[in-house]
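User: I'm designing a mutation panel for Putative membrane protein and want to avoid disrupting the core. Could you give me a predicted structure to guide residue selection? Please restate the sequence first so the numbering is unambiguous.

Assistant: Good idea. Sequence first, for numbering, then the predicted structure tokens:
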Amino acid sequence: MHKIAKAPPKAQEKQLLIVKLVVVALYGVGIIGMSIPEYRPLFQSLTPAQLLITLGLVLFFHRGWTDSFPIVAALAFWIGFGSELIGIHTGYLYGDYVYGDTLGPKLWDVPLVIGVNWFILVYLTGAVFSKSISNDYYAALMGAVAMTAFDYIMEPVAMAVDMWYWKFDIIPIENYLGWFGVSFLIHLIYRKANFEKANPLAAFLLIVMVLFFSILNFTLKL
């Protein structure tokens, strides 16, 4: 396979710094916009674009362009999306919920970008544990735990900004169990695939995303 030429180390550091500043600006402005009721509808409509920009930034620093990577990316998208289809139409896996309009165009009542969201979260949490944990099953377990914790932080915000709604506004325990199970499956596929998993932007971006939802949990209640 043709190898992508790498920029010199100093150029890479400069690129990384610039992108980190872009990430802070992107999510910082999002926090402000979502926190001001007058501007919230506008920023809600920009959510799909924010996810796609995040995806682009992640892939910009990805170095494991082997034949298996696009397969894993596609599986993460479609397993995540497929699980949401099951959840929406049967109530299994996650409980009874429906999607609002914030996440954009839907296919069979499920926003298409939800598959992108699954891929991004698996990629980021997987990259964080890629070097520190050698055992694939333990890494998949920790990745699933991290994603379930992230979902716990995200859920109240998602309901407040019209991403999705739960029956009786109660988040059922099966939601977190379902998230853990599906996350573990995708993480295991991710770990078993042969491609470079370290990404210099991953940990920073994951922290920013956690802060984004954590802060909104507070500001949206004011």
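For picking mutation sites, this is relevant: Residues 1-5 have pLDDT under 50 and may be disordered. The longest helix spans residues 9-35.
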